[in-house]
Specification:
552 residues, alpha/beta, four-stranded antiparallel β-sheet, globular
Length: 552
């Protein structure tokens, strides 16, 4: 049987420092857990007549740990044999650690856009995942390793990989790149880190059958396999994105695999990942070659680890392309959440365009397309710091606006009458079920037909005398003001504010009402340009201000 072997390079285990939690000394507990120290020898006779529970006896420092009634504390403190009595303190890990790799791949900026991998299913095909780790939530899994009954990790590698991807965002340990992603453990490697290639193939098939979105393969082999290649092609056909480690040199020696990276990363349907260090230089151990796609942080990465056994504290630092790969996997989960309508090809293209080119211009054998970058924008064509982004984020999070299937919003494009009414209808929680309307040119199966019908019933839109609505026509600024004013019942105003908004116009009072309420504004020359078409970005600002006074 072929074996799949992965390499753990420069593995270092670290213990998270402890801190003492502040105690409320005045808390009147019925039972108190305390430490009692003695001047000379431990003498348990001082506890005669006092109900107690013994926890520990420290012979070296002549002390004991016990639980006794609170009312008995005074008796102990006054006993001449007792040197001290102190309350047992609660200890905890020193907060949550953010690994150094988060900064270069832009995870913090992605969090500001509320991307956490929510709803994305990620399978870790590895040594399993620790089932009792408090920093990991496992959605499910399976084991294909002989003589095992669960996917529980008995090696540590799979748990470390899982933590980089999706350790929970809580008050302990570490936090993953995509802490809300759904983690699935597929155990194919045994305690020694080796396993049958056939088990890996079975694991990929399991992932396909369970509608997994992303597969992480932090495992390598120096041998090509027709069967493995075919099952990965099948996963690709099903829309599953697969990432894999490019491989690690052992003692500076490359395995005899030619001038390219290892398998399965070398296959064209797999995203191949190499490692960089804190200076963003290629790690000395990282395999390189023409099939490499991305690099990511892979040296001295702090993540979750198995707890069982000597010196296994639940967290550890490890190095290798195995650590770089889950950085890319977690980042892809963020892209999947951010742009759920993108095809796999579009998603991969977006990641390529956003990657930071570290080597020669364009794709090169040492860094691939470059350092993977997290998504930081609501839409692919909208930056976070543009003048309308905060309004759009508010509307997007509320579910009132959406983009196009290619992940863009086209903020400078003009908005149609149907799109405008749909966005307003969503904001007002109207019945948007597609149906017939009173307008002859609105098809019952059109995306905005339900909102157009509801808006007409509510009385804040009207059609034309010939019973048409012209849903695909572009809407102008004057019409937007009228519809918003009527939809949100903004009090009318008769004071003329803009010199180009004439009293005889049907939108005169609406424009002035919205201007007086600071919902709309004009241009520096004192004009409003009511007949000018409104862009999608401008309309988003008006709608957000109508909904939320804090934006005005």
């Amino acid at each position: 049987m072929k074996k799949v072997l992965f390499i753990l390079s420069f593995c270092i285990l670290l213990v998270v420092p402890l801190q003492v939690a502040a105690a409320d000394e005045a808390e009147p507990l019925m039972n108190q857990r305390v430490i009692v120290g003695f001047h000379h020898e431990i003498d348990l006779s001082i506890l005669e007549g006092i109900p107690f529970e013994m926890h520990h006896q420290y012979d070296e420092i002549k002390a004991i740990s016990i639980t006794i009634p609170y009312s008995s504390l005074v008796l102990l403190k006054e006993n001449p044999k007792v040197a001290w009595v102190e309350r047992d303190q609660i200890v905890k890990t020193n907060g949550q650690v953010v690994d150094w790799g988060h900064e270069p791949v832009g995870v913090a900026q992605s969090r500001k856009a509320h991307f956490t991998g929510k709803g994305v299913k990620v399978a870790v095909i590895d040594t399993g995942i620790s089932m009792n780790h408090p920093d990991l939530a496992i959605a499910g899994g399976v084991t294909f390793v002989e003589n095992t009954t669960s996917y529980n990790d008995d090696n540590g590698h799979g748990t470390h990989v899982a933590g980089i991807i999706g350790a929970k965002d809580n008050d302990i340990g570490v936090v993953g790149v995509a802490p809300d992603a759904e983690l699935y453990a597929i155990k194919v490697l045994a305690k020694d880190g080796e396993g049958n290639q056939t088990d890996v193939i079975a694991g990929i098939e399991w992932a396909i059958q369970h509608d997994i979105d992303i597969i992480n393969l932090s495992i390598t082999s120096s041998i090509d396999s027709i069967t493995l290649r075919k099952v990965l092609e099948r996963a690709d056909e099903q829309g599953i994105i697969v990432t894999a480690a490019s491989g690690n040199e052992e003692n500076g020696i490359r395995q005899p695999i030619g001038s390219d990276i290892m398998f399965p990363a070398r296959y064209p349907t797999v995203i191949a990942v190499g490692s960089v260090n804190k200076q963003l230089h290629k790690s000395a151990f990282s395999y390189f070659g023409p099939s490499l796609d991305y690099t990511a942080p892979g040296e001295d990465i702090y993540s979750t680890y198995i707890i069982e056994g000597e010196q296994k504290t639940g967290y550890a630092s490890m190095s290798g392309t195995s650590m770089a790969t889950p950085y890319v996997t977690g980042t892809i989960a963020l892209y999947k959440q951010a742009y759920p309508t993108l095809t796999m090809h579009q998603l991969k293209k977006a990641m390529q365009q956003k990657a930071i080119d570290l080597g020669e211009k364009g794709k090169d054998p040492y860094y691939g397309y470059g350092l993977i970058q997290s998504p930081t924008t609501l839409f692919l064509d909208v930056k976070n710091d543009v003048w309308y982004s905060s309004y759009m984020q508010y509307l997007l999070e509320a579910g009132f606006i959406s983009g196009y299937l290619d992940g863009t919003f086209k903020p400078n494009g003009y908005i149609t009458r149907e799109e405008a009414v749909t966005m307003i209808g969503r904001a007002l929680h109207l019945d948007g079920e597609e149906r017939r309307t009173d307008f002859t040119d609105v098809k019952p199966d059109s995306f905005g037909s339900g909102y157009i019908a509801a808006a007409s019933e509510q009385g804040f839109i009207n059609g034309y005398p010939n019973q048409t609505f012209e849903p695909k026509s572009l809407i102008n600024r004057g019409d937007v003001a009228l519809v918003i004013q009527q939809a949100f019942h903004i009090p009318q105003a008769t004071k003329q504010i803009f010199q180009d908004v004439k009293r005889e116009k049907y939108y005169f009072e609406a424009v002035n009402a919205l201007s007086g309420s600071k919902i709309i504004g004009g241009y520096p020359d004192g004009n409003f340009s009511p007949e000018q078409k409104i862009t999608r970005a401008e309309f988003s600002i008006v709608l957000a201000k109508a909904l939320n006074e804090s934006f005005r």
